[in-house]
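User: Fold this; tokens only.

Assistant: Input:
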Amino acid sequence: MRTTTYIHAQLYNGRERFADGRLVIAEDGTIVSAGPADAPATADMGETVDLAGKIIVPGFVDVHVHGGGGYDLLRGEPEDFRGTARFHAAHGTTSLLATTGGAPEPQTIGILRNALQAQTDGSMNGADYIGVHLEGPFLNPIRKGAFEEAWLHPPDREEMERYIAAAGGTIRLITLAPELAGGEPFVRWLTDQRVRVSIGHSDATYEQAVSAVAWGARHTTHHFNGMRPFAHREPGVAGAGLTEPRLTAEIIVDGIHVHPAAVRLLYDLKGPWNVCVITDAVYQAGMAEGEYGNTVVDGGKIYLKGTDTLAGSSATMLDSLRRVLDITGRPLEDVLPSFTAVPAREAGADRRKGALAQGLDADFLVLDERLELLETYVRGRRVYPNIKEG
């Protein structure tokens, strides 16, 4: 078996840190071994790459991304999928869930079909598409955020079956408001279909949110945003996410959506293994400041023109990692699960993604001591910097 071995790296496998680590990759793009340099060799060393103390971490998994770099998954053309994959790979993401919005059904069907094709196409010289996150249309208009209210409505099983068919069974996560009419049977049915149910864009009370957990909900969407907020007499969805151990909480750490104190609170209460960092990036992420249709980009903030309503984020996973480290004061090996193993678990991809361990895909990043990105690898293949571009 031909292998490539990376030696003399500060290796973070997703749980532990090895000051002098060794990562061995098979020619099929899977991991042979990841651990200390003095561990017994499990294969012929083959080609050797000396990283001279640089850092290796697992590639990031983003379960909530709408686009980036001018590419829009809500438009959903094939080039949008390719461009989004390349943009986020250049910022440390190696796997992602293509995330829809509360669009009319025909538009959503088209996006889902192209998302399925993107998964079939593989990494496309960028991040891997590992499924779909359906955000809407089963959302509460009271917490609609930037969505068009006319597109939102209560759960409809027949409509959902059409979405599942269009996506070829690859919908891994769905955001919905469980308090809407028909919420309980819908959540129970989705759970039976092995679709992860996330509470989001929801005005549910604390009791309603806890009931949704009993029905099968296990996730919250962009915690603290698009939900009934915490209050001491009515803790709302925000309070349920903080106190219910079966819920994993998504969070946007862009310095805009959530105050640093709230980020720190979430980590202190839930721990890194129950926090899922996302970007919620939209096509304007990485673009110059200015007006884009009905939105404005100003100082990294993206909002609907003439309002203070946020319309997605310009965050990247690597920038978010640096912020989490700064806000929480935790070591890198402690917070990495929120960017790797946890989102992989929530996407149902933890048997392939989210850590550096034998048999998993060789998705990893090479970073310098300032946590600046040097290289991104997806299934053992360098996708950033692009080989063809140097």
